[in-house]
Design brief:
165 residues; Rossmann fold; 5 helices
Length: 165
Amino acid sequence: MRTAVVVGNPKPQSRTLAAGVLVAETVTGAPPDHVFDLVELGAGLLGWGDPAVTAAVETVAGCDVVVVASPTFKATYTGLLKLFLDQVPTAGLAGVVALPVMLGAGPGHQLAPELLLKPVLVELGATCPAPGLYLQDSAYADDPRLAPWAERTRPLLTALTAIRT
Ligand SMILES: Cc1cc2nc3c(=O)[nH]c(=O)nc-3n(C[C@H](O)[C@H](O)[C@H](O)COP(=O)(O)O)c2cc1C
């Protein structure tokens, strides 16, 4: 199972990145093969055809499972993440199982990963079998939502990646 974590936080090496990696490890049982801290792609995300951006998109598209993680900014995912997702071609995530994950400071936007981030991933062709996961930023590692979500999601990943291979 090839896995990646995509992190759309303008702050590098953020808790969102750590949470995305934790989610990937918890649900797959192994560290992700790739971690893309999108802020490192810098201004390449503002145009078309940047080699590093293209390589990142192709790597993500070639994975079986991708955790797409963002902090909550103004009730939704970040503009940085959207810049990256805009680089994915039509149906570019076909065959990829995507897991939308968002961190937030409070509970007010806990439906954002399901209602706002997941539809974009589906538009790009990804399969999103699990509910979008929202974690409290100050205690993401101990968030009681994580373990039951992972239990529910793990067999879905196993089944879907078996179909793909
Ligand atoms: C510009 C901005 C807007 C934010 N808007 C929200 C929000 O609408 N809802 C919320 O729960 N947290 C909001 N926050 C808090 C961030 O979601 C929180 O700080 C982030 O998840 C922490 O993750 P990090 O440590 O990886 O940056 C906002 C933070 C910033 C900087």
